[in-house]
Amino acid sequence: MTKQFADGARRLAGASGRLLGWPPHWFWRATPAELAAILLDEANGADPGITRSQIEHMIESDNNGR
């Protein structure tokens, strides 16, 4: 896990607990799309987040466990 990802996940986990009252396991079971649907207002041009092709690129370039 990269430091950038870990820092972002930590912030989002904390925000989901504070704003939504979620226990940690609810956050970790939610998909990014589910979390975005709850927290973002898509009508106001919210960032669509990461794309499938970006995820595939990250998977291809990840050397962890190889």
UniProtKB/TrEMBL annotation:
<dbReference type="Pfam" id="PF09550">
    <property type="entry name" value="Phage_TAC_6"/>
</dbReference>
<protein>
    <submittedName>
        <fullName>Phage tail assembly chaperone</fullName>
    </submittedName>
</protein>
<dbReference type="InterPro" id="IPR019056">
    <property type="entry name" value="Phage_TAC_6"/>
</dbReference>
